Structures
1.
Amino acid sequence: MASKTALITGITGQDGSYLADFLLSKGYRVVGMTRRSSTDVHERIRAVLDRIEIVSGDLLDQSSMTSVLAEAQPDEVYNLAAQSFVPASWSQPVLTGEFTGLGVTRILEAIRHVSPKIKFYQASSSEMFGKVVEVPQTERTPFYPRSPYGVAKAYGHWITINYRESYDLFATSGISFNHESPRRGLEFVTRKISDAVARIKLGMLDKLHLGNLEAARDWGFAGDYVRAMWLMLQQESPDDYVIATGRTHKVRDFCKLAFDAVDLVWEDHVVVDPHFYRPAEVDHLVGDASKIRRVLGWQPETSFEELVEMMVRADLDRLRPFALV
Ligand code: NAP
Ligand code: F7E
């Protein structure tokens, strides 16, 4: 049987890089869409660059989306591209709506016109639950987004369902809770902590400034979550699934485990800095992933404790060559 072709938008991001690894291991032809940049953005996919194809396109540009699909002729499209950092969505609310919200419609329009048989995955987010109306959150929990990012994702989620129902597209939406890894962007809290812990251990830094230590998240490992995305597109019919571990921890718990991993006491180094507070916070997220466990047989394989350890070790290895001692 001929190998399948997958198009990944956002291939230079955390999830895009893990998904590329995963699909290559399954024998896929992998095409990644990147936007034009004056600098090299391929750091996370450097190891697989010679095994994937890169095409140029931008979620802001309808004709580029259509050209990318016509050129790549994919069987599956994974829409992972977005402005994904929540605080940036307050400073750039309109742009976030354009990328993260309307960008989904642009891809769906391109699919409808170029090849309506394409299977489509939309990267929806637990941020849509925001100020949660029930605990834990399922596929049926009403949304109450608390940031321009969350609002844009809610639009992307519903337009995916609308195109499925209006045009009979195989369009699915995975409602992912937070997932992290050594490839996570340095501005997100988990990676900010693991990077700082490594720097403090190596004598390169003394204090770590953080915002709300009481915020609680359902944190999983990104490598586990891309498997769930793929599974969703291997089914007979499209559906939406919560992807989560079902366990929740506070930012302070992450700090404690990360500093413990290098035999340091977190209270000696962490400084609470109101600069990192948000205009509106999402206090407590915990996902109920029983549907994806039951229907697709998916479950996370990496524990919270293993994730923290993995991230701290990776940052230590990365930074050790730059340490003075
Ligand atoms: P990420 O590391 O921030 O990657 C985002 C990707 O989107 C990057 O490749 C970026 O390209 C690309 N991008 C941004 N704007 C674009 C545009 N206008 N046109 C084309 N590409 C554009 O995000 P991630 O953590 O991998 O997350 C992947 C997706 O899942 C995102 O949609 C995110 O919102 C969603 N999500 C993530 C989580 C999580 O916990 N990680 C949870 C729920 C949902 P550049 O390299 O050029 O910037
Ligand atoms: O914040 C608190 C902060 O920026 C987590 C994205 O992938 O997951 C991610 O969004 C929590 C928040 O991720 C700092 O207030 C404390 O409560 O790591 P984060 P996020 O906002 O949950 C969702 C599911 C997505 O879809 C998004 O794309 O940590 N926090 N102190 C801090 N957060 C940051 N960034 N920096 C701090 O210093």
2.
Amino acid sequence: MSQTLLLLPGDGIGPEVTEQARRVAEVLAPDLEFAEDLVGGTSIDAHGEPLTVDALVKAKSSDAVLLGAVGGPKWTGVERHLRPEMGLLQLRKGMDTFANLRPAFCFPALVDASSLKREIVEGLDIMIVRELTSGVYFGEPRGFERGIGDKSFGYETSRYTKGEIDRVARVAFEIARGRRGEVVSTEKSNVMESGQFWRETVTELHETEGSGVALRHVLADACAMELVRNPKQFDVILAGNLFGDILSDAAAMLTGSIGMLPSASLSYDGKPGLYEPVHGSAPDIAGQGKANPCAAILSLEMALRWSLGRPDAADKLFAAVGKALNAGARTGDLGGSMSTTEMGDAVIAAL
Ligand code: NAD
Ligand code: IPM
Ligand code: MN
């Protein structure tokens, strides 16, 4: 039976990097069928909303979704609920992709591309498991209270249910079992009720379902500090939506560039995953052919592995990216001068 990969290139550098991932997919999995739709600002321009019902239905009925990036200065004035980023949040929620895997892996060829010293990042291999469909990103009530002068305010609710914490912690435990078997769970239990509840819940789940896994709790701020001090101590980092977002951008820089970091957002078995680079639409370099397509290409790698049941193709692709980097392939963010297409060419040549 044929498999369909839905491409949602989005805004800014999104289409540029997604195009390279598509070229790689055509070489590596020629039988794969592609569908394409709009998300983010491009969808606002075409349909007046950042994600149409039709696009969400397509996403849910595909085998996997590969998204580029959303957002950009053109749409910053748009009403909050219609912003490009809302399209992405609606897609994550609609697909119920609650477990966001963000691997921070330092390719040997890039040990000197990081802003940190070689010995700090050499051999780095961290998996961040970020809860993606709840927490402060979605908690109600939220909103603004304006027109009361100095007392005007904006607010949202940081809220996690036991079920939401259990299901993502379970994924972190499972992933750790296939690695070093260590999970560091992060929150701010010292100041937040939702953080305290997170810690208690993860601890309880570990007692019943954590066999083979060593669990440690680290406050999210200390975790950020440890990520730049001694990142190789980490195997799997489990975090809620907001802290996972922030920690993964920090982890990205350990790998050399945010242009290297892919992600997989997974739901329950049998449901399609959503794959996207961790970076955004990079308005400062959009349209110039400068973007590093590796995060998009490695997101395809994760799709082949986690949704499309093609681990051999995924292994080949991972090796090809490493080989291209070994041969000196570099976009500007990695200190080189290759264009987005040339970087795609280099990976295809290595394949
Ligand atoms: P960004 O990730 O777009 O850019 C941060 C910096 O990294 C910029 O200097 C950019 O040029 C550079 N960069 C990012 N990706 C790169 C790549 N592939 N190759 C080379 N350099 C790269 O973050 P930002 O500037 O804070 O956000 C821009 C927009 O993107 C905002 O609207 C934001 O909401 C959105 N955003 C979207 C996603 C997503 O779609 N998943 C993720 C993050 C941010
Ligand atoms: C990410 C991005 C998104 C997030 C935005 C664009 C909604 O920063 O995927 O890391 O905050 O989750
Ligand atoms: Mn982010």
